[in-house]
Design a protein that fits this description.
This protein is α+β, with helices and mostly antiparallel strands. It contains ten helices and 24 strands.
């Protein structure tokens, strides 16, 4: 507040003096106010999460919020409330807070010209500052104020001299990692920042298939599959307009013979998203035929391979479960996995057994949401005139359940597995999990937008012991997937889950109780 100004807040009756802002409900954040207007960011509810700066004049009706600038990154209102600093597309604009939004041509005149700005930076001084800052962030954010009993000031003294030997950001990250690693806590990540990136990096594309060199070209040994309910997720060679088969031989890509190069990837450099011409010959074909397809990036190829594994697991459960068992895999526990859960759970919620697979789960924070769904209990049944009975609570699972985990189950995937067991929902099968259960906010950023995260929120149970951290979740039934058998397509953990559920169903069948006899409410008129 300005010098000489005294601010007094009358707390008595404050709640009764609150007035709603007359705008439609939406996704709003970063409210600011001056003498004449309210300002806020409106964030779109789609996946693009676009933000725009909105303003509402404080006056009597009619009241209508107006867009100041669309697709911004951030904004700030000046201390005196007269100016707005808006960031859009990496540029800064200074606007008058009490005037109408400038038009597109006028907006360019409001841009802050930073083209002549230049700074002298001594990298090693900056690296030294970042190491100290990472040390401070751990000191101030770590969940244990005693920092696991380590001598934190002395550790800084030991590591600071090593800055003189650092030659780039990656080496600094390594040094920071050595320092923060002394706290012996998982969920401590070091990375990003002002790293060197080669400008001539060449992206590798993929056809979404396993290929083997053979006479005439490369034979398709396996085509990575996808859930057929989602045709847009198909790989390049399994799309209907391409529809290649295992055993087909790809002879050339864009006119170049595959046998003339060491690997097909050589001919797919920088081809992700670009159409390529293949010549393909089937086992029964006398001549090769042209095929046009669009390769995918190596990231998309990795995702497709993962989807192939998920789909094969689901098929294995469908076949081995004899139609009685359902299968849901969760890759992670983030906002995208809400949809993943609904897509896979809703079609099979009325099965007699359920396998929830959190192997390779990367974590997040939706364990409570999923456990809440699984805790629902059916307590009455509806019987329509036509059709089978169904129950409330809606989507409650009435059968037997198990969770699959392994050494790659991490963070919130581990919390889910432990919660599933502690809440009595069923056993956990697999191998001991990663062991990271001190949660964090990922807000400990350094000056170059790198991060040295702090493990901020510990987890303990009602028995008064810290949970999971440094050890992991111990399965109730230990089953390991051995490397050689797994390479050959076996899945001992999934097979154990199927066998366990069949045994439970035999011992305790899951049936819908039959409806009672319909009431007879006929009136005997003969005695009236």
């Amino acid at each position: 507040k300005p010098d000489g100004v005294t601010v007094t807040i009358d707390l008595e009756g404050l709640a009764q003096r609150v007035m709603p802002v007359p705008v439609e409900p939406n996704n709003y954040r970063d409210l600011a106010i001056n003498a004449t207007r309210l300002f806020w960011k409106e964030v779109s509810v789609d996946t693009e999460r676009k933000q725009k700066l909105m303003a509402l004049e404080i006056k009597a009706d009619p009241i209508e919020p107006k867009t100041v600038i669309a697709e911004i990154q951030s904004y700030e209102l000046s201390f005196d409330g007269k100016k707005l600093l808006v960031r859009k597309n990496g540029d800064f604009y200074v606007l008058d807070a009490d005037k109408e939004a400038p038009k597109e041509k006028e907006l360019e005149k409001k841009k802050v010209d930073l083209s002549n700005w230049a700074f002298s930076i001594h990298p090693r001084d900056e690296w030294r500052q970042m190491l100290i800052e990472a040390w401070r962030l751990e000191r101030d954010y770590f969940y244990d104020r005693n920092l696991h009993g380590v001598d934190w000031p002395t550790l800084l003294e030991k590591h600071l001299p090593l800055v003189e030997r650092v030659t780039d950001r990656d080496e600094l990250s390594n040094l920071i990692a050595q320092l923060v690693g002394e706290l012996a806590a998982l969920h401590t990540f070091v990375g990003m920042g002002d790293r060197r990136n080669a400008q001539d990096r060449i992206g590798i594309a993929s056809l979404g298939a396993a290929l083997t060199r053979t006479e005439g070209g490369y034979r398709i040994e396996h085509l990575y599959q996808h859930d057929p309910d989602y045709p847009d997720r198909a790989g390049p060679l399994t799309r209907p307009e391409v529809a290649l088969q295992v055993g087909d031989v790809i002879e050339s890509i864009n006119g170049v013979s595959l046998l003339s190069v060491a690997d097909p990837a050589v001919l797919l450099k920088k081809q992700a998203g670009q159409q390529v011409l293949l010549y393909v010959k089937g086992p029964a074909d006398s001549d090769s035929r042209p095929v046009i397809t669009t390769p995918i990036s190596h990231w998309e190829a990795a995702d497709l391979r993962y989807a192939d594994w998920e789909y094969r697991c689901r098929q294995r459960v469908e076949q081995g479960g004899e139609g009685k068992l359902g299968y849901v895999h969760l890759r992670a526990m983030g906002r995208d996995n809400f949809t993943e859960w609904v897509e896979n759970y809703d079609p099979i919620f009325n099965r007699e057994g359920l396998i929830i697979d959190v192997r390779h789960n990367r974590g997040g924070n939706i364990d409570s949401w999923i456990l809440e769904k699984l805790l629902r209990k059916a307590w009455f049944f509806w019987k329509p005139r036509v059709g089978k009975p169904f129950w409330n609570m809606q989507w409650a699972f009435r059968g037997h359940m198990v969770v699959l985990c392994n050494e790659h189950t991490a963070s919130d995937g581990e919390a889910f597995a432990e919660g599933f067991r502690r809440l009595g929902l069923g056993p956990v099968i697999g191998t001991r999990t990663w062991g990271g259960e001190i949660w964090l906010s990922m807000q400990t950023w350094l000056v170059d937008r790198g991060i040295a995260s702090a493990a901020e929120i510990g987890v303990y149970g009602p028995e008064g012991e810290w949970l999971i951290e440094g050890h992991g979740v111990e399965p109730d039934i230990v089953v390991d997937n051995l490397p050689h058998s797994t390479f050959n397509g076996e899945d001992a953990q999934l097979d154990a889950a199927i066998a366990h559920l069949h045994e439970r169903i035999r011992g305790q069948p899951v049936t819908v109780p039959p409806p009672p006899t319909y009431p007879n409410k006929a009136f005997d008129y003969s005695n009236s």
